[in-house]
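>> received
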Amino acid sequence: MALALLSLASFGQMFLLVPPVLAEESVEDLEEEALKTEKKLKEAEKKYGTIKSTFNQISSTLTSTQVAMQRVQNLLNQTTQTIEQKEVEIANLDKQLALERKVLGNLVQELYLSGSTPFVEIMLARDDIENFFQNEEALLSTQDRLLSVIEEIHATKKKIAEEKSSLLEAKEDHEELLVIQNKQKQSLVSQQIAVKEDLVEQEATIAELEEKLQDLKGDLSALTGNSYDAKDIREAVEDASRETGVPKGVLYGFLKMETNLGANTGQCTYKEVEKVSVARYKKYGKKYKASIDLLYRRQDIFYVLVDELGYSKTKKVSCSPNYIGQGGAMGVAQFMADVWRGYESQVAAKTGHKDPDPWNLTDGVMALALKVRKAGATSDSAPAIRKASVAYLGAFNKGYYEGILYWSKNYKKLFS
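>> returned
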C-alpha cells in the first residue's frame, strides 16, 4: 500500500517500528546481496555452459565410437562368415580330391593289369591287339587329365587356404580393435556419467541461486513499495509485455483462447475434477493411469497452495474437458498447480508480490508471459506462436494455434 494512503497516525506508528535509516540500510543490504547473488548466478551459468560443452563433446565422441564399433563388428561378422565359407570350400575340395584320387587309383590298377600281360600273348590274340593299344592310349590320356584336375584342385585349395589365413589375420585385427574401442567406450561412459552428475549439481546450484535472487527482488519490491497490481486486463498485459518482451498481441491471443480474457476461469472444485478422472479411469483403465496419477499429484500441490494463499479447498478451477485431459487449471492464465510452483519466484520478482497468486490478474498474466517467453514467443510470427502454443498446451491443436495467431494480429478488435 502506498504511503499516501496511510493516515498520519498509522504512518507515525510505522515510523516508530521501522526507522527510515534502518529501512534504507535494509534496502542497501538487500541490493548488495542481490548483486552478489546475481554475480554468483552468472558464474554458475558460465560454469554450467562449460560443463555442458564438455558433456556434449563426450557424448559426440561416444556416439562416434559406438558407430565405429558397429562398423568393426559388421566387418568381423562378415569376415567370420567368409572364413566359414572358405572352410566349406576347402572341405568340398578335399572330398573332390579324394574322389579323383580314387578314380586315379583304379585307373593305375587297370594300367598295371594291362601292362602285366605278356607281349607274346597279345601277339597270339591278333584280333584284340588293335583294341588293346586303343584302350591303353585312352587310359593314359584319362590318367593325364586326372592328374591335371588333381593339380588344379591342389592349386585352388592352396589359394583358398591362403585367403582363409589372411581372413583369420583380419579377424584377429578386428577383434583386437574391438577390445580397444570397448575400453574407450567404457572410459567415455564413465566420463559421461561423472560430467552428468556435475551438470545436475550445477543445475541445482543455478536453481537455488535463481530462487534466492527472485526472493531478494521480491523483498526489495515489497520494501520499496514497487509491487504492482493491474486494474484490468489491459494494464496487466501492458506490464507483462514491458517486463518480458513478449508482444501484447501474443499475450492477448493466449488469454483469449485460454479463458476469453479471464471471463472463464473455471467452474469446478478439485473434488469434482477428481470425480470425472476416477470415472474415466474406470472406463479407460491403464490407458488413463498416468493421467490420474498426475492429477492426484497436482491435487496435493493445489491444496497446499490454496492453504498458503488463504483460500478454501473449494476454490474454483477449470473443469475436466470432453477429451481425455485434466481439469484443475487456475486463474486467467490456466496454470496447473505443479507448473505454477515452477514460476512463482519469477512472478514475484516481476510483480513484487511476495506470495504470487494464480487467481490474481497481474500475477497470472505475468506467469503467462514468462512461460511463452521461455518457449520463444518474443515475436508474433507464426512459427514462434506455433512453438509456444505447443509448449503451453502440451500438444499441438490446430484450432488453439490458429486462434492465438488470429487474435495476436487482431487483438484491438477485442476492445472495439
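>> Residues 281 and 288 are 5 Å apart (CA to CA).
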